[in-house]
Amino acid sequence: MLSSILKKVKPSLLVNSRIITRTYATKEVTVRDAINSALDEELARDEKVFIMGEEVAQYNGAYKITKGLFDKYGGDRIIDTPITEAGFAGIGVGAAMAGTRPIIEFMTFNFAMQAIDHIINSSAKTHYMSGGKVFNPIVWRGPNGPPTAVGAQHSQCFAAWYGSVPGLKVVAPWSAADHRGLLKSAIRDDNPVVYLESELLYNYKFNLTDQEQDKEYLVPIGKAKVEREGKDVTIVGFSRIVSNCIEAAEILAKEGISAEVINLRTIRPLDAETIVNSLKKTNKLVTVEEGWSQSGVGAEISALMMEHAFDYLDAPIERICGADVPMPYASNLESAAMIQTQNIVNAAKRVTQRNK
Amino acid sequence: MISQASRVLTRLGRNNELKRALTNSLNNCNKSSPSIIRSFSSKKQELEEKDKFEYTNNLEVQELKHYIPCYTIMNQEGVVSKPEQDPNFTKEEVIKMYTTMLTLNVMDSILYDVQRQGRISFYMTSFGEEAIHIGSAAALEMSDTIFAQYRETGVFMWRGFTINDIINQCCTNEHDLGKGRQMPMHFGSRKINLQTISSPLTTQLPQAVGSSYAQKLAGENNCTIVYFGEGAASEGDFHAAMNFAAALSTPTIFFCRNNKWAISTPSKEQYKGDGIAGRGPNGYGMKTIRVDGNDIWAVYNVTKLARKIAVEEQRPVLIEAMTYRVGHHSTSDDSSRYRTVEEINAWKEGKNPISRLRNYMNHKGWWSDAQEKETIASARTSVRESLVNAEKQYKPSINEIFTDVYDKPTPALIEQQKELIEHLKLYPDEYPLNQFADSKLILKD
């Protein structure tokens, strides 16, 4: 089973590092290290910041994201908790109300469902319900979306869930620079921010420029990024799947189709403007997300484009999503349920060929 | 259970073996020996610590034998059984406590009727629990933070939340500190250090632990007190909060108002065992006191001691105050449908916390019938005047719909606001715009 995981992960890793090496050329880091360095720098910068979650201190985190931080900052600021998501989520909300800036790590966002009342009913609404007097500056972070070989209860994408809630900001970074810049922005933000990571991305390597390694490097929340310019079709994705979108664009390029790839980076507030501007150029759109299609991020983008860019559309928008089933465990079934690069390529071809 | 077990399995199986193998093979594993060695060595130390229980060769099933006693010092006649435990407040202080209790009682009666007349949408009375409110509030410092459930109006009044503050919130006018965003009785105020009341039951408990953890981190000499009912203690958040407070050793006072009824569910159907207090010492290793909630001096002494323990020892304390909810749960239910008038009257007349304090004052010669009449009349006037005035005020500005969703408005919020204002400009006569603050200014250009 392990070998099946490796087979799945390795090829996309190779593809990915190839792309990135070509773009930048300074320091190669994994996404894991990018998150870790951002946490470290923000803990050093502001003593009101602390990290709380299961296994985050002595064990350095279930995925080693908090490696070394317990040794550096001690047990008062890197806090291991009993196994009660509702407990440490509630404690985070209360501590934020009292003026601190907690970072709450969920071992995965699947487990955050046990604490979702605190995130939605308390964290997102505190500022509004207090008449603007009480802030709730929390970062809710952890891996989100399907990893591999962990079955239905560990393989969901919650971007659309949290993305529907006013009062929350929701980010889903892809590159190491995204992870650093968005995490630092999230920690410094006075609003609660849901920071969706991807377990499969943790080991991906990206190059960081000098600027991106800077302690003050911030990526603004609410701004998408055009990762690759093109003129025939726009492909929008977020988090890990952006790698597949770029891979698809390369395949399409060989067949003479020029695809623009937008890395959404923020789910809420959603940067409709960047997508509209791209659509004005390409007139065709494919949305890609690992979550389910109904009421998903792709559905939201499609509706926004109807409202803001209907006249620019030359073909119906295509949504590429995870299969509309709970994630199966067996690797052949799982592969079939997850998005493959070819699905994106096929969708891009369908929307571009419609117009010919 | 299944999810816990699967998580343990996941953690053991996936994280330790698969994850490590995966990361190793990708040549990306960050091997950090120092911290792992240290964590193992500290684990070893823990293992060597002696178990606190004894081993026995008697096979014996344990059952509840010892019920936690209920601390009380003043009987219904107002006589303090141990004079040295009388907190000995001055005449002025006691009169202030008593008049606050009486005012709360009068205000509750009027606002309950006002809701019935349809002038406010919702209300919750505190009948029967006045001694808990004033006794506990008097034992706290203003710098202590309060997380409340919803039936603690007297606590807020004692700390300086005025009748006007309460009625403006119930009428959701422009002077409502919450800008008309919450149901009546969901107060919040910086001035009295009260965190905004939240409707979902018991979420205030873990949040109070977080607040007290922040106080601990900042090295403050303060605590956080959190109020809740015995019904709320059935929520999972109760366990989460108690366990975390004990494990993190936070200066938190858990104040349970056991008023015997959770809407229509009596406490005997809410739990087995020794109430809420019974869970404290053995369940969570938490210092615990049970107190007669209708005895203001007992409540004061207990809360004072709990505060001392919380602040000086930096650890949580559980208080269970035994009382009775004399009123309905809220204006949304009729309690005569699920309990007898005899039961209500036994508490209302036989154990009334207000008359108990009045008897105490009578013994001292500090109170007369004339003062009683005058206080009630004056409270009635204040409440009625405040209500009439509150109803005349503007409602919050239309723009307040959109503020404070985030610290700064997002493009989507600005767009929504623009749409609404444009619509109102087109159809100003279709809406009661003159009822809202700043309408003329907003629709001017």
Automatic annotation (TrEMBL), chain A:
Ranges where the Transketolase-like pyrimidine-binding domain occurs: 29-204
SUPFAM superfamilies noted in UniProt: Thiamin diphosphate-binding fold (THDP-binding), TK C-terminal domain-like
Compartment(s): Mitochondrion
Function: The pyruvate dehydrogenase complex catalyzes the overall conversion of pyruvate to acetyl-CoA and CO2.
Keyword Transit peptide: yes
Cofactor(s) the protein needs: thiamine diphosphate
Pfam families: Transket_pyr (PF02779), Transketolase_C (PF02780)
GO BP field: pyruvate decarboxylation to acetyl-CoA
Keywords assigned: Metal-binding, Mitochondrion, Oxidoreductase, Potassium, Pyruvate, Thiamine pyrophosphate, Transit peptide
Superkingdom to which the source organism belongs: Eukaryota
Coiled-coil stretches: none
Record protein name field: Pyruvate dehydrogenase E1 component subunit beta
GO terms under cellular component: mitochondrion
Catalytic function, reaction form: N(6)-[(R)-lipoyl]-L-lysyl-[protein] + pyruvate + H(+) = N(6)-[(R)-S(8)-acetyldihydrolipoyl]-L-lysyl-[protein] + CO2
A GO term for molecular function: metal ion binding
InterPro entries from the UniProt entry: PDHB_mito-type, THDP-binding, Transketo_C/PFOR_II, Transketolase-like_Pyr-bd, Transketolase_C
E.C. number: 1.2.4.1
TrEMBL record, chain B:
PANTHER family the record matches: 2-OXOISOVALERATE DEHYDROGENASE SUBUNIT ALPHA, MITOCHONDRIAL
Reaction catalysis annotation: N(6)-[(R)-lipoyl]-L-lysyl-[protein] + 3-methyl-2-oxobutanoate + H(+) = N(6)-[(R)-S(8)-2-methylpropanoyldihydrolipoyl]-L-lysyl-[protein] + CO2
Subcellular compartments: Mitochondrion matrix
Family, similarity comment: Belongs to the BCKDHA family.
A GO CC term assigned to this protein in UniProt: mitochondrial matrix
GO biological process, one term: branched-chain amino acid catabolic process
Protein name per the record: 2-oxoisovalerate dehydrogenase subunit alpha
EC number: 1.2.4.4
InterPro entries (UniProt xref): Alpha-ketoacid_DH_E1_comp (IPR050771), DH_E1 (IPR001017), THDP-binding (IPR029061)
Cofactor: thiamine diphosphate
Record-linked Gene3D superfamilies: 3.40.50.970
Enzyme class: oxidoreductase
Species the sequence originates in: Dictyostelium firmibasis
Residue span, Dehydrogenase E1 component domain: 99-397
